[in-house]
Amino acid sequence: MSAPSRMIAIAVEGGAGPASALQAVEIDTPVPAAGQILIRVGAAGVNRPDILQRLGFYPPPPGASATLGLEVAGEVAAIGPGPSRWQVGDRVTALLGGGGYAQYAVVDGRHALPIPAGLDAMAAASLPETVFTVFANVFEHGALKAGETLLLHGATSGIGVTAIQMAKAAGARVIATARGADKAASALKIGADLAIDTTTQDFTAEALAFGGADVILDMVGGDFAQKGLDCLKPGGRIVYIAFQAGGRVEIDLQKIMQKRLTITGSTLRPRSADEKARLAQAVEATVWPWITAGQVRTMVDRSFPLAEAAKAHAWLESGSHVGKVVLVP
Ligand SMILES: NC(=O)c1ccc[n+]([C@@H]2O[C@H](COP(=O)([O-])OP(=O)(O)OC[C@H]3O[C@@H](n4cnc5c(N)ncnc54)[C@H](OP(=O)(O)O)[C@@H]3O)[C@@H](O)[C@H]2O)c1
């Protein structure tokens, strides 16, 4: 398998803009450097951070492709100089610093994982960004253990559907919040033990009535911050991965002292190549067996042709999806 020298990729016209600014362009196919592999993209995942990047708020880290796209699945088309775990033709899924919205993508070979048996490229492309994020934040920073309770917001988001399933696979209980009765019902179907519709219910009261939470995965911030601290059990941990309702909040420090709470958070994309390689090994050891056993299922809400990336972004921004959106070149 040899790659053509030019390929189709998606660019943001003018550098930043609305979904309609996403345009298909022809660019040079990347060439894998030492330690890298070139993947012929079978499908690329679409994530909320891609929208932030399109709007100009989330620039790629140094060395990453300027093209959008944090995850792909496909076949290894070429291998850079030096030893590699991979061979041309291997089916892989990979976490990228950028460059997924294209026919070919290069990535550090250590950030690729074998596609779990039974999954096609679309399903596999929906995994890396959310699985790595949930693993790092819920299980490493949040240290969620079997028998504990995870509270998460945005239940039907790509992150939400992944976090519900991974926490259940680890033997934890899950309280999930969503905006709307239909989304709360979806959360129960996916495996949440309790689903709270925050448009009609007070999540703090409902979570406390359920026994409280040991860990909270928060992508909302704003007024959810104090409400979250209120429903944590003693020794509880709250982990921030975003702040869609506001990043500057007022909280009661006394609650943190009284209950010995931990507030933490992280981002995935700027981590070092070695750190992402470490995470990839941990994800393959812990999460891949859950996927193979069917305990964690991929949830692709909808797919769009690569050239219709603008429609994919508009769909994600409408908030109508349950699970992941993917692009197919
Ligand atoms: N830190 C990291 O490393 C990292 C990595 C990946 C993703 N993220 C972040 O994680 C979040 C989810 O990503 P995704 O790709 O899964 O996105 P997504 O599928 O687009 O989901 C976004 C979710 O946020 C919810 N939401 C937005 N504003 C809200 C508000 N004011 N109150 C309550 N809920 C609100 C939405 O609820 P509705 O459905 O009701 O609209 C939706 O469930 C994003 O904010 C993303 O930037 C962080």
Global morphology: globular
- Report the uncertain regions: none
Category by helix and strand content: alpha/beta
CATH topology group of the largest domain: Quinone Oxidoreductase, Chain A, domain 1
Q: Could you tell me how far the N terminus lies from the C terminus, measured between alpha carbons in angstroms?
A: 17 Å
The CATH superfamily of the largest domain is: Medium-chain alcohol dehydrogenases, catalytic domain
Overview of the molecule:
This protein is α/β, with parallel strands linked by helices. It folds into 2 domains: 6-127 and 271-328, Medium-chain alcohol dehydrogenases, catalytic domain (Quinone Oxidoreductase, Chain A, domain 1, Alpha-Beta Complex); 131-265, Rossmann fold. Helices cover 30% and strands 28% of the residues. The chain has 10 helices and 15 strands.
Helix-strand blueprint:
Elements: E1 6-12, E2 22-28, E3 36-46, H1 48-54, E4 71-79, E5 91-95, E6 104-108, E7 112-114, H2 121-125, H3 128-141, E8 149-152, H4 158-169, E9 173-178, H5 181-190, E10 194-197, H6 203-209, E11 213-218, H7 224-231, E12 232-240, H8 253-259, E13 262-265, H9 273-292, E14 300-305, H10 309-318, E15 324-328
Parallel strand pairs: 8-9, 8-11, 9-10, 11-12, 12-13, 14-15
Antiparallel strand pairs: 1-2, 3-4, 3-6, 3-15, 4-5, 5-7
Helix pairs in contact: 3-4, 3-9, 6-7
